[in-house]
Amino acid sequence: MPTDVSNPKEYQDIFHWAETQKNGTIPSFAARKNDPYEYMPGLGNSFESEAIPGTVPRGQNSPRCVRFGLYAEQLTASAFVAPRHSNKKAWLYRARPAVAHQGFTDMPDNPDTESNFLPINPRVRISPTQLAWLPFDLPGSRDKVDFVSGLKTIAGAGDPMLREGLATHVYLCNESMEKRALVNSDGDYCIVPQQGALDIQTEFGHLYVQPGEICVIQRGQRFKVKVDGPTRGYILEIWGANFELPELGPLGANGLANARDFLHPTAAYEVTQNDPWEVIYKLGGKFFKSTQQHCPFDVIAWHGNYVPYKYDLTKFVNVGSISVDHIDPSIFCVLTAKSRDPTAPLADVLIFSPRWDVASHTYRPPYYHRNAASELMGLIYGEYGGRSDDFQPGGISYECGMVPHGVAYEEFFEASKADPPAMQISKGSIAFMFESNKPFTITDYAWNSKKKHEHEPKMWDNLVDNFSGHKEEVEKIMASLKSVTINQGK
Ligand SMILES: [Fe+2]
């Protein structure tokens, strides 16, 4: 399909990013044409970036005097002695170190956020019911809500103070954060915009993240979000691990989300004086603030491997069966995070995006299943066929681990009738799933929301028992088996 690469809307209609490159007839490009920033590609690399050339010290990290009298500050995200592949740090060369602030004060609780998902907490509910939410309302034009004030927690597991668990949130806002930065001391945010782009300023530079893209802001990294009008999206927050790419096993070295397609900011600074800012710290799910008289994004140069990043989901290389059957949904994993159970991840981010469906002699819809995993799905744009409820962009569908699900009988019947042709599916659509081996509990905000609805259980009432219609045939088979068994016994 021909695409106008300058129109951001067009990226929602493509089958894959490859289409935007127009068979090599135009210069290749790594970020959408309306993206105002420059990036560095690669995931897990050690990067360096300087807004003023010659500022990053070479051969050492902490010189007696840094160029321009800058302060050197290390942000260490792992244990100092963590193995190399999981050892994460960044050196920041800045106008003032982060410690230059005027102390912390408590902020009032945001009653719509939650961090303790242990069932002993009276503010969370356990439910084996298949739950769903219609799209959450955006703030009205009279309300001014920024990214931090617009956070609402839906479900999660564990507790950040235990350093193991996760939370899922939505954000509903219409104002930019002004003279206000957020730093999550609990864990990493994977942010999934659904409506409206996020223009994110970080200490490492800028990220522009549009629906169809995701970004990861890691624990301890300060950031500020600018929006343009009503803005909605989803967040997966993880505690005690960082996001990484899944192993590829027999797929080899390429496929799914390729490391080279993850984009990192380049250094950009804002140095101010007599400029009142507040830096909001989230710790143990509570919000605190510190004030300072200068901009916190005053990093002129940096190097390290602990850097925020973004990824365009249209670049995901889908794989699947080219003969029969479904491959398990782990093939849709964009990012994963380890738990302390070596056999099960803490969290996976999966996407369901345009792809070919070609398996023959195969029941093509999602088969009836019960999983060890809890599944929380959202829809970024388009339509998603594999869900039985009223699933719309900006809404949510959730099943706790081991809750059975699958399509209604009519769909089963249609899908069982004849072999479908090879076809493109999920066109013009991206759905995602936050998945975990941990059962989630549901927050008061989500439980009491008017948007909540349960799957209509009657939709499975007419799942016909086809087996009983074969009673005589089965009895005949069993009788013949008995005689064989007796004969063999003799
Ligand atoms: Fe499922």
Automatic annotation (TrEMBL):
Pfam families: HgmA_C, HgmA_N. Keywords: Dioxygenase, Iron, Metal-binding, Oxidoreductase, Phenylalanine catabolism, Tyrosine catabolism. The active site is at residue 326. SUPFAM superfamilies: RmlC-like cupins. Residues 38-313 form the Homogentisate 1,2-dioxygenase N-terminal domain. GO terms for cellular component: cytoplasm. Pathway: Amino-acid degradation; L-phenylalanine degradation; acetoacetate and fumarate from L-phenylalanine: step 4/6. One of its GO terms (biological process) is L-phenylalanine catabolic process. One of its GO terms (molecular function) is homogentisate 1,2-dioxygenase activity. Its cofactor is Fe cation. Homogentisate binds at residues 384, 405. It is an enzyme of class 1 (oxidoreductase). Its EC number is 1.13.11.5. Residues 315-467 form the Homogentisate 1,2-dioxygenase C-terminal domain. Fe cation binds at residues 369, 375, 405. Belongs to the homogentisate dioxygenase family. This is homogentisate 1,2-dioxygenase. It comes from Mytilinidion resinicola. The lineage of its organism: Eukaryota, Fungi, Dikarya, Ascomycota, Pezizomycotina.
